[in-house]
Amino acid sequence: MYLITVFGNLLIILAVSSDSHLHTPMYFFLANLSFVDICFTSTTVPKMLLNILTQSKVINYAGCISQMYFFLLCVELDDFLLSAMAYDRFVAICHPLHYTVIMNPQLCGLLVLVSWIIIVSLFYCTGLGVYLSSAATQSSRSSATASVMYTVVSPMLNPFIYSLRNRDIKRALKRIVGVPVT
Q1: Which of 27, 41, 70, 180 is most exposed, with minimal Cβ within 10 Å?
Q2: Pairwise CA distance, residues 37 & 77, whole Å
Q3: 55 backbone φψ class: left, alpha, beta (φ>0; ψ -120 to 50)
Q4: In whole angstroms, what is the distance from residue 152 CA to residue 147 CA?
């Protein structure tokens, strides 16, 4: 599932960056969401796979804090990018004649930059202190299953949900592979 997640999201990034028809705000946000999803799964899954292979669940304090920091950073970035995508769709539907004026490249870049800045600020100011001071809790099998569903399955499905059903993305992927586009 991890490889499907990485491969699917890389395909979206490749399709959006290589096809000039996909250089629109919606696909710009989609490519950023795909990048964040790759980072999101890469913060926990490799360590989880190592733990399964070695039958060891040991992680040092610095590794735990680093993993939590980057995991939560990516979760919040996902949330802010999905908010930016929702705003993009709102403008496209409610103000279609003003869409290109409102959703210009500068605003799209600013929305992504602000998403990153807000997340970094939130974590440096509040998140790190909370997680440094919290006590360790026992995890049950059901919470482990829920964690895998959230950290692996959701990012794996995002490429299918947001883009692989989209004919523009399919057309761009066919051009990349060399399949004639009809």
Answers
A1: 180
A2: 9
A3: left
A4: 8
Contacts of 45 (CB under 8 A, 6+ apart): 2, 151, 152
Q: Where do we find the tokens 């500068």?
A: 106
- Return the H-helix or E-strand segment holding 39: helix 25-54
Cα 161–chain centre separation: 13
pLDDT digits over 76-132, tens only?
888 888 888 889 989 999 999 988 898 888 888 888 888 777 766 655 565 555 555
Contacts of 33 (CB under 8 A, 6+ apart): 78, 81, 82, 85, 158, 162
Please tell me the distance from the alpha carbon of residue 55 to that of residue 59, in angstroms, as a whole number: 12
For the chain, the residue count is 182
